[in-house]
Amino acid sequence: MEDRKCAECGTTLVGRSDKKFCDAYCRNSYNNKVKRADEKFIMDVNRILRRNRRILKHLCPQGKAVVRKDILDQLGYNYDHFSGIYRTKLGTYYFCYDFGMSPFIENSIKRARIVMKQNYVPSLDLWKVD
Ligand SMILES: [Zn+2]
After folding, report:
1. Long-range contact pairs involving 63-68 (C-beta distance under 8 Å, separation at least 24)
2. How far is the CA of 37 from the centre of ligand 1 (A)?
3. CB contact at 8 A, 23 and 13
4. What's the 34 CA to ligand 1 centre distance in angstroms?
5. For the segment 94-130, what is each residue's pLDDT rounded down to a tens digit?
6. Alpha-carbon distances, residue 83 vs 3, 15, 71, 100 (angstroms)
7. Which DSSP category does 123 fall into?
8. Ligand 1 center to residue 39 CA distance, Å?
9. What residue ranges do the domains of the chain occupy?
10. What is the pTM of this model?
């Protein structure tokens, strides 16, 4: 029979074949590590979303604005993360909470429309075919 080792400390396990840890201490510290790693990812994404929102709010004090992509880049906007999406005939808005940006190109310059979310945003039908 193959040696089974504790998932936390690597000690060879004896006893029940479904045992994964030597004791409650190892089980707890293993589970805590997994939980921390899980929560770290969520916290990192939340941090990015907050910073994105702060950038959009800063650039859009009147509730509507158009900016060059360069400006967003300089401020460290992260395009990979958003909390909501809203499609219009003119483009797609990527929201970070209550502020959204919609990329477009005009005179070969990359720009973005920024808007503050209205109270009413229709809910999505993700399975709708255009
Ligand atoms: Zn152990």
Report:
1. 63/115, 63/116, 64/113, 64/114, 64/115, 64/116, 65/113, 65/114, 66/111, 66/112, 66/113, 66/114, 67/111, 67/112, 67/114, 68/109, 68/110, 68/111, 68/112
2. 19
3. no
4. 15
5. 999 999 999 999 999 999 999 998 765 667 777 877 6
6. 46, 48, 21, 9
7. P
8. 23
9. 24-116
10. 0.74
